């Protein structure tokens, strides 16, 4: 672990103080940063500052002394050399707009949000670029297989930071990497963002599959064909297909589809038990990004003329009243195809 003496007392701001933002704030704090978490909730800020806990999101975790909280945006961002946005996708534009007047012109901007803007279908870097007045190519996205609860316990975790600007990607890598949090760089910002967002849809399906009592056979097929849908859409949007064979693709897909720490898996599991969507979301108590992303994927697949049968059937379950078992039967009854041809198509390969 790095110490403050090694890196100096650099300042970082993390917006907002949810589970993922708090876990990443702990990583930065362990690496010698003086970190301020921004939250709208005054009582949450007081709890973090006095008890060194964020009970709603990371109940059993003691936060380091070098991590504080504020409900003042100006105070949180004052002197911050690194600004990390970790809000929900639906709140990103509003929060970026509030932050814009206080973000230093030379601050490193990183986001760790997995989703699209609901009404515009824009990626989070596009939203940040528009609101902060920064070229999209200078922004960094952090993604990969990472549950906040495990990162907060300092369990070994490996992620990727992506930017078209290699120097900024390496700057982010240096800021986050330590002996329990390994960080790779990747130039494919689009691919990393698409992989992180769309895997949440497949995780909803994985939770449904488990909730219906299906076995490992079904799960393996779902992950494999789900990864194909992610790659298909991502490459149509301009991503490199190889990105989806890495941490932001198959890595994130596996962890989100196989762990009950995943909100999306838990939501899908509840839906399979016949609990209505509104009630599921109320029980979860936190945002389930896969639900909104399923709606975004429907429109993106139409926009880019990409076939996404798993996402389509999940859309039917979530928004059209389709029973989960019916959706499975529709998927299993699809027309025949040759796998080698399908894989080549999905991954942008050319067969000889």
TrEMBL record:
Signal peptide: none annotated. Residues 188-328 form the Glycerol-3-phosphate dehydrogenase NAD-dependent C-terminal domain. The active site is at residue 199. It is found in: Cytoplasm. NADPH binds at residues 19-20, 40, 57, 114, 148, 263, 287, 289. Pfam families: NAD_Gly3P_dh_C, NAD_Gly3P_dh_N. This is Glycerol-3-phosphate dehydrogenase [NAD(P)+]. It catalyses: sn-glycerol 3-phosphate + NADP(+) = dihydroxyacetone phosphate + NADPH + H(+); sn-glycerol 3-phosphate + NAD(+) = dihydroxyacetone phosphate + NADH + H(+). Pathway: Membrane lipid metabolism; glycerophospholipid metabolism. Belongs to the NAD-dependent glycerol-3-phosphate dehydrogenase family. Sn-glycerol 3-phosphate binds at residues 114, 144, 146, 199, 252, 262-264. Residues 12-168 form the Glycerol-3-phosphate dehydrogenase NAD-dependent N-terminal domain. It is an enzyme of class 1 (oxidoreductase). Keywords: Cytoplasm, Lipid biosynthesis, Lipid metabolism, NAD, NADP, Nucleotide-binding, Oxidoreductase, Phospholipid biosynthesis, Phospholipid metabolism. GO terms for molecular function: glycerol-3-phosphate dehydrogenase [NAD(P)+] activity. Catalyzes the reduction of the glycolytic intermediate dihydroxyacetone phosphate (DHAP) to sn-glycerol 3-phosphate (G3P), the key precursor for phospholipid synthesis. Its EC number is 1.1.1.94.
